[in-house]
Design a protein that fits this description.
Helices cover 47% and strands 23% of the residues. The chain is α+β, with helices and mostly antiparallel strands and 223 residues long. Strands 1-2-3 form a three-stranded antiparallel β-sheet, covered by helices on one side. Strands 4-5 form a two-stranded parallel ribbon. A two-stranded antiparallel ribbon has the order 6-7. The protein is elongated and about 135 Å long.
């Protein structure tokens, strides 16, 4: 075992210059050793503080990752339900089919494929000669009637403004009054219809546009 260093007190020093210098050098060395140890302790405390901060940051990050993971799972569940093949979307379309279907128009749901992706769609049929025909087998005028019926159902809730541009152009004269009636039944505050049909009468204000001899647009407003 290493023997402990002998402690020398000032009164034990010989009264010589050499002994005093030796004692002073020893004191300076001890002071230097103590300063070094204190510096190391200070660095150790600083490192401990850094480690503590890193641990706290790590715990915060772990908690954030856990929350994000849970949010991603909830989003994936929501997306799976709400995408175009999901249960919620399917239930909505089926409910709309029941609500929208009437004596002259029928709606149902079917699956389709677009860009290699499956999706659910709302199909529309119109009664022609006592038989329901699918939308893609109808004439342009009949498709217009289907579109108007769909709008009538879609806007069953109160809406502010609806603009239709040449939406009656494919109709024959017999169907214009019916189309006018469908549009007048829409639950819309303001309906603007742009059309060349003179027999469209369901309006509160009519604006006729024409060109004069100079090629300028003239407006004639009638009630």
């Amino acid at each position: 075992m290493t023997e402990p260093e002998k402690v020398i007190y000032p009164e034990d020093i010989e009264d010589t210059d050499e002994a005093k210098k030796s004692y002073l050098a020893r004191l300076l060395k001890e002071k230097e050793d103590i300063t070094t140890k204190l510096t190391k302790l200070s660095l150790l405390d600083s490192q401990k503080l850094e480690i503590k901060l890193i641990e706290e940051e790590s715990n915060t990050l772990k908690s954030s990752i856990k929350d994000t993971t849970e949010k991603v799972k909830r989003y994936e569940t929501y997306a799976q339900l709400m995408n175009r093949t999901g249960k919620v979307y399917e239930a909505i379309l089926k409910k709309l089919s029941q609500i929208f279907s009437s004596e002259d128009f029928k709606y149902d749901t079917d699956s389709g494929v677009f860009r290699n992706a499956k999706y659910l769609e709302l199909n529309q049929y119109m009664k022609v000669k006592k038989k329901f025909r699918p939308y893609d087998q109808l004439s342009d005028g009949q498709k217009t009637m289907c579109d108007l019926d769909f709008l009538n159902n879609l806007y069953s809730v109160n809406m502010g403004l609806l603009c239709l541009d040449e939406h009656l152009k494919h109709l024959d004269e017999n169907n214009v009054p019916l189309a006018s009636k469908i549009l007048s039944d829409l639950n819309v505050n303001t309906l603007i219809v742009s059309s060349h049909e003179d027999n469209y009468t369901e309006y509160t204000k009519k604006i006729n546009l024409s060109l004069n001899e100079l090629g300028e647009t003239e407006y004639v407003i009638s009630q």
